[in-house]
Amino acid sequence: MEHDAEINQRARLRPITEIADALGLGADDIEPYGRYMAKVSMSAVRRAAAGRRGRLLYTTAITATPAGEGKTTVAIGLTQALGRMGLKAAVCLREPSLGPTFGVKGGATGGGLSQIAPMVDINLHFTGDLHAVASAHNLLAAAVDNHIHQGNELGIDPKRVLWRRVMDINDRQLRHIVVGLGAPGDGVVRETGFDITAASEVMAILCLSHDMDDLKARLGRILVGEGRPGTGRKAPWIFAHQIGVIGAMAVLLRDAIKPNLVQTLEGQPAFVHGGPFANIAHGNNSILATQTALGLADFVVTEGGFAADLGAEKFLDIVVPQTGLVPDVVVLVATVRALHYHGGASRSTLHAYDPEALRRGFANLDHHIRTLQRFGLPVVVAVNRFDSDDPRELEAVVAHCQEMGVRAAVADVVARGGEGGVELAETVLATLERERPSFRPAYEWEMPLTEKLERLATQVYGADGVDLSSRARAELEALEERGFGGLPLCVAKTQFSISDDASRRGAPTGWRLQVREVRPSLGAGFVVALTGDVMTMPGLPKEPAALRIDVDQEGFVTGLS
Amino acid sequence: MEHDAEINQRARLRPITEIADALGLGADDIEPYGRYMAKVSMSAVRRAAAGRRGRLLYTTAITATPAGEGKTTVAIGLTQALGRMGLKAAVCLREPSLGPTFGVKGGATGGGLSQIAPMVDINLHFTGDLHAVASAHNLLAAAVDNHIHQGNELGIDPKRVLWRRVMDINDRQLRHIVVGLGAPGDGVVRETGFDITAASEVMAILCLSHDMDDLKARLGRILVGEGRPGTGRKAPWIFAHQIGVIGAMAVLLRDAIKPNLVQTLEGQPAFVHGGPFANIAHGNNSILATQTALGLADFVVTEGGFAADLGAEKFLDIVVPQTGLVPDVVVLVATVRALHYHGGASRSTLHAYDPEALRRGFANLDHHIRTLQRFGLPVVVAVNRFDSDDPRELEAVVAHCQEMGVRAAVADVVARGGEGGVELAETVLATLERERPSFRPAYEWEMPLTEKLERLATQVYGADGVDLSSRARAELEALEERGFGGLPLCVAKTQFSISDDASRRGAPTGWRLQVREVRPSLGAGFVVALTGDVMTMPGLPKEPAALRIDVDQEGFVTGLS
């Protein structure tokens, strides 16, 4: 089989105006970026988002192996299958980050015959949204330091500046830095660092904003630092609106707020918009994209980052309560390979026939199914087929799900595109016909923060409880005292285990969630609880993907995956 | 009069496809970015750049006051005037940098009725070229540090890494930093810093490359650092091609290499492409844009950064020898205000009638006229009219030029657009009819580096000679020894004086050029000689422009200038 990049670049795409037209969007409703990409104008977004006609199919996954198990690919393949069946379907995805594209993971545009296109552009600069987020983020950082340098009227303590800088490159060298060295005119010496752009609170804000005014209000609520505490007084908090560059940040995000429209290899519309991390942020594409798609299509497939305990949980506890975007069905992606892994198989033999490991691995699948059922949502399991899979094991997964009373189907979308997703699509449609969501979040926002944490730990992660570090306890108390106890939680946790320990496979029991630090994301509107070490700036591996990537005189790109 | 941003956003623009069509570019020759911006495809660039049909009108200026004197505006107004006269004219400009847009200077899209549009987009992310340059630059930086971190096979000395990082924000805090702090997995501790993106060597390379292969070859020649010198041996130089991410950098620049097409407020085509600094880089738009325009239009107006001793000199000594792009005429922009300044008037009274200061200020104008004549080029002086100008002084400037045997005209293009530039256009056309360039560069590339410096200092800047610091002398010798003595020079010098001392107005005499440091830009293909302090990362002022900028729900932007 050809490499993804070759398949993608040789595909015959439809002009983006045709894709838009099929959705009822006219020439004035879109702003083209090249021939195959466009942004949807804010007036069209407002019109489309005003009424929901579509059913929302939310794609998530079991706990993945380090390579990823094809959740995006299944979401695209399912959309293509629905399209083949004559249904009006669209897919909503997060947009890729340059860092992973040149690092280990590669791009994020699906694989094989289930891809979105044009993948080279989408994986590189796309329509510039990530660059816009980084510019807005870093303008605020420069303005905060400039405020201190120019007299510091607000009395910001240079040792308590919370706002770091961002860059969309995997660059470990920038994790911990000292800035402001040099001459007196070169700023204030202090410690800080860079995160990757996807980890910027501005990205989370972009994905949660309803319109430009909401975006500005949220940007203004960003906590950038603290002043020095007086005797017996709390340190005053300094917010972005006090710095005064909110308008300029919003100008930089003027186009980024508009959803991007591209297409699948089979010509279904794909809204690819926003890409927040699924650990320190909520890991789902923009609400404007999903709302727009739901106003224009009958079936909207979307997906969240990492497994059901991360991206899906955050969608259900952070996004749904403020938007009402309750999924009609959840598609839970599993692979034989990942089930082997969770059943204890060694990394080098994941592709080999091993029914015993598979059976033991069901513990992870079952845990995620129960979690989603506890949210009151209909579940369909999609077994994403790999070439090396033994048919007996694929059947065993489907049979196991049926024993649990859950519909399941094998998806062969990498090799066969939409055609290979028809069985899954039919299973989803059958579920939509017979089941209705009866949504219950994991917690109510008005509960105290510690109680919300306890709920998540015990009901979603299967922990026995929560252990707070003394720092985390003090930070949670401070948030309650300052009136932010009613915000939802965003737990930053490893994606390689349901627990907070990346080495524990399956469905770990007999453990307690260790919360070491709490960070308010007041602009995004959630409280981040950090468990273990969370990487907000990845590094490059010894042989980064960047070494294999090239482009010829005609602009044809090789080595991108 | 309305503010520039309001005039620009309310203007009725023609679809970019129409602008392209008038140049003979079909729908397949351009890639639209929204309705009013496009990139020209590489195949169309190759076709157009193959044959030159147009005359090249190069715009430069006398030494400016800190506010700038409207060179870009005159270039746009002249193009609009030629268009009004029924001639097929296009303008080529550098693209703006975000840093100054939010800092002191504001954007770079002209003013009043002589602007290019859509100015908000052009001044913000435009088609993403600066972001692409920054990404490519910073990917190389991350790869260099990753190489050291992962075992350092090339033996790069962490104390001799020359490749810094870039950001398109005015952020003094990042000028001098220490990176790689933290745990062992967080990289290698060393000193470095950030420059503004326009100062990146990648930007200079983009502007000087003939095609993708040339771009890759130049990227590969970037000097990223040195190894440790052995006993009695020179430190080995480490080049970017040894790091191995040239293909990935080129992929990031795949679209950035294509010229951008927009329009003037009066509908003439404007190629806005590349924005290298005019101090540590060569300060002119891309050669691909100029060559494309010259293949499609009969009159191509372009401009270089700062005054004739900087942008124009670099165009003539760096760009022309490798492209043959000899200007047919040079338009030298002067203002009454700047002449007052050079005649000794205080900054607060530059707008007041002061014929004595004006007369004294002619020294600066005359110096630049003689410099350009020494290059063998026909010169026309354009007196850019400001509202506060006294008509007697405008006339005095024109009369003075005529006494020197140089044609001159008042340009009233801010207030009246192309109509206000017709007199200037007629003067230019008359000059084209009567004079032919007989081009002589300031030096031949094969001269030794010190001799080339001497030539520039005495013949272009009016110095008595050159004083080299011991460091600069050693660096020049090392370059000659390593075989790079045949490269042209790029002198980084203050833009506020013809001398190397920003406080010296007029045409200073009796001084020697102080060269303190020499840096090879081997990818760009020139040797940078630094005189005095050259700022490669600006800071924000106490009241940055960012504080005044805002955007409303409909996306209408205010406060941008």
Automatic annotation (TrEMBL), chains A, B:
Enzyme Commission numbers on file: 6.3.4.3
Family per similarity comment: Belongs to the formate--tetrahydrofolate ligase family.
Keyword Nucleotide-binding assigned: yes
Catalytic activity, reaction form: (6S)-5,6,7,8-tetrahydrofolate + formate + ATP = (6R)-10-formyltetrahydrofolate + ADP + phosphate
Region forming the signal peptide: none
Organism in which the protein naturally occurs: Geochorda subterranea
Record GO terms (molecular function): formate-tetrahydrofolate ligase activity
Keyword ATP-binding: yes
Highest taxon, organism lineage: Bacteria
UniProt keyword annotations, A-Z: ATP-binding, Ligase, Nucleotide-binding, One-carbon metabolism
UniProt pathway annotation: One-carbon metabolism; tetrahydrofolate interconversion
Protein residues bound to ATP: 65-72
UniProt protein name: Formate--tetrahydrofolate ligase
